[in-house]
Amino acid sequence: MKPVKVGICGLGTVGGGTFNVLKRNAEEIARRAGRGIEVAQIAARRPNPKCETGSTPITADIFDVANNPEIDIVIELIGGYTLARELVLQAIENGKHVVTANKALIAVHGNEIFAKAREKGVIVAFEAAVAGGIPVIKAIREGLAANRINWLAGIINGTGNFILTEMREKGRAFADVLKEAQALGYAEADPTFDVEGIDAAHKLTILASIAFGIPLQFDKAYTEGITQLTTADVNYAEALGYRIKHLGVARRTEQGIELRVHPTLIPADRLIANVNGVMNAVMVNGDAAGSTLFYGAGAGMEPTASSVVADLVDVVRAMTADPENRVPHLAFQPDSLSDHPILPIDACESAYYLRIQAKDHPGVLAQVATILSERGINIESIMQMEVEEHDGLVPMILVTHRVLESRIIEAITALEALQDVVGNVVRIRVEQLN
Ligand code: HSE
């Protein structure tokens, strides 16, 4: 059988890795796919020194690939929203299948792209868009297809996890570690995407869609970054038996779906709490399988290429299948997507870690406890530290039971109004993940 011809758009880290893996493992890949996969064209503005492209034709214009009648599958690895959207829509218009690693594109324009792909009877595959080398899309979409998924929680940004790990293990300051993450090439072109949770929210939006069978709704995801975290909170969390992770959480409730990215305290003995450095992990809880955990490299040249090539193999196998009999893009049949709403953050429920800086006066603790109990907020643990020498204030650390976000905000406002409380109350969500 003639090989399938693919075009790679973008020869950066992931594009270069994809080319190399396809070349190195060509024989094994062909044995799996049932046909050879040949890179027939590359679109790149500059060569990648880590790639021996040999005689493969190279163009500077990505649309040459989308319009090339020889090409069966376009691999979009240029990143970003606008140009990538145009490229993918053009490829689909020309009847080509698409493989992409672009989480921003799928999270923001996925509904439009999948609708167009259905119209044209082509596949758009995006395993590499979430958690790099971890095949978590396939696991949720196919491996867990029997389950009603209750929730999922993931460390899905390697840069953020690297920063938090260095802060906890080495006591390093946030800004210092971010600089190193950028130098090591982990961070997005705009590192605010990593540290403000936008990158993780892109990935969480995709995971939530395929877990719950809802349309992609990135605009409704709540994001809170890690820029305000201090080593003091990292250490207090540790003393209470927790680790702080930048977590993406998607949970199904009767009222709607929680879709939120924020720093989170997790019990230190959970496996996911011990995922360190740039590694990613996604925990999925289904009613039949219980909790499953998927762990691996969330970024990088060949781990991400591994997912791109796995998608290529899937596409090659499914190319000749009737479009109605392929795995649906968002796991559920398009006419069966649910309109269960995404909840606003103040309607979400979580436990909370609170750090209050108080004057060392009698009765402060009682006032704090009263404010919380008046609002029905149950305290799980409380820790009062020594008076700080530099300001004479006493840090009080509390962990609450689960409570509505709106209720805790109300309590924090009352706490901050107390005469003996100085400055803002630090609030970090807590998830038990059990
Ligand atoms: N900037 C991303 C991360 C790259 O740090 O995880 C992979 O999506």
Question: What's the layout of helices and strands?
Answer:
Layout: E1 4-9, H1 13-24, H2 26-33, E2 37-43, E3 58-59, H3 62-66, E4 73-76, H4 82-93, E5 97-100, H5 103-120, E6 124-125, H6 136-143, E7 149-155, H7 158-170, H8 174-183, H9 192-195, H10 198-212, E8 222-223, H11 231-239, E9 242-252, E10 257-267, E11 279-286, E12 290-297, H12 301-318, E13 349-359, H13 364-374, E14 379-384, E15 393-400, E16 403-404, H14 405-416, E17 426-430
Parallel strand pairs: 1-2, 1-4, 2-3, 4-5, 5-6, 8-10, 10-17
Antiparallel strand pairs: 7-9, 7-11, 9-10, 11-12, 13-15, 13-16, 13-17, 14-15
Helix pairs in contact: 1-12, 2-12, 4-5, 5-10, 7-8, 13-14
Bound molecules: L-homoserine (HSE).
- Mean of residue pLDDT values: 96
The structural domain count equals 3
Distance between the termini: 50 Å
Count of alpha/pi helices: 14
Low-confidence sequence ranges: none
**Structure classification:** alpha/beta
Q: How does this model look, in words?
A:
The protein is of the alpha/beta class and 434 residues long. Helices cover 36% and strands 24% of the residues. Strands 7, 8, 9, 10, 11, 12, 13, 14, 15, 16 and 17 form an 11-stranded mixed sheet that branches. Strand 9 and strand 10 form a beta hairpin. It is elongated, with a radius of gyration of 24 Å. The mean pLDDT is 96. Residues 132, 157-159, 186-188, 194, 199, 298-299 line the site of L-homoserine. The site of L-homoserine has 11 residues, from helix 7.
